[in-house]
Amino acid sequence: MNRKFLKQNTLKREVWCGGVGLHSGAGVSLRMLPAPPDFGIRFKRVDLGHRPEIPAHYEQVVDTFLATTLGRDGVVVSTVEHLMAALFCCGVDNVLIEVDGPEVPILDGSAAPFVEVIRKAGLREQGAVRQCLVVEKPLEVREGDAYIKARPSRDFRVHYAIDFPHPLVGRQEYAWSLGAGTFAVEIAGARTFGFLKDVQKLQSIGLAQGGSLANAIVFDDRGLLNKDGLRYSDECVRHKLLDFVGDLALAGGSVRGSFEVRKAGHALHNAFLRKLTESPGYCAIAPTTVQVPFFHAPGMSPLGMKYSSVGKPV
């Protein structure tokens, strides 16, 4: 394991993965390339003539309906949250992400394929000091019975709770800490989920065209349509926690604080992050000094699964 993430990290080599966009159903390829210190994380639309770049930052969020969408000057990249969670928890600070369409590929509906791609690339430590957004005092943001609460902590911790009126979901809670180094085995493999009646409505209006049982958990009124079952008994809440981590990664760096979340979604995640960072006194930027274990043992794929990806030396 790494003793500390005191310095910024980028990838050792470029890596590629491909699949379909969740909403368009169109094929899309994604390539991640090493980037210099203080570059941050940026998406580049290589399918467009001027190849525009969009910083992976909460200020660039232009839509939170069903997924988190980044945009700039009319150009968008959507469904970034699973990839952002993987980059955040694997310790990648600087990377250029080239996509040849308006969506990040959904792959299997989780962050596990992205973790595996990053593992194959490897990390290279850089000279610049890693910066961290530190929660300085308690903050709460509410919308109806949904809320996000933050308080100071030496680690990045999340306690997430959901409640859906379905016999296989119901009320679920999960607590997780980045410092435990268990993202790959506890959180990354949790897939996006939905309910058949909602999926059918979305597809009727041209959304979720790429959604299938290969990249989502789907419930009908009484049970689960996926023949292979769930990866975790509480997979739904773990996926919501994954989404939260990915949305918080749009802070622009590592984060330190304890977060209690209930029945939130992408819109509330973004509203919370804006209030945390834009309201005086609630957070500060400081060099990262907290020990963080490596995200999983070298050579171990999340959940033991295989994904289509290739890498080539830079």
Structure characterization notes:
- The chain is an alpha+beta fold.
- The protein has a single domain (7-312), classed as lpxc deacetylase, domain 1 (2-Layer Sandwich), CATH 3.30.1700.10.
- Helices cover 19% and strands 34% of the residues.
- It has six helices and 20 strands.
- Strands 11, 12, 13, 14, 15, 18 and 19 form a seven-stranded mixed beta sheet that branches.
- A hairpin with a 2-residue loop joins strand 7 (69-72) and strand 8.
- Helix 5 (235-248) runs parallel beside helix 6 (266-278).
- The longest helix has 14 residues, at 235-248.
- The chain is globular.
- Residues 294-301 and 304-314 have low confidence and may be disordered.
Count of the separate structural domains: 1
SSE series: EEEEEEEEHEHEEEEEEHEHEHEHEE
How many runs of DSSP E, i.e. beta strands? 20
Overall SS class: alpha+beta
CATH topology: lpxc deacetylase, domain 1
User: Rg from C-alpha positions?
Assistant: 18 Å
Determine the number of helices (DSSP H or I, runs of at least 4 residues).
Answer: 6
Question: In one word, what is the shape?
Answer: globular
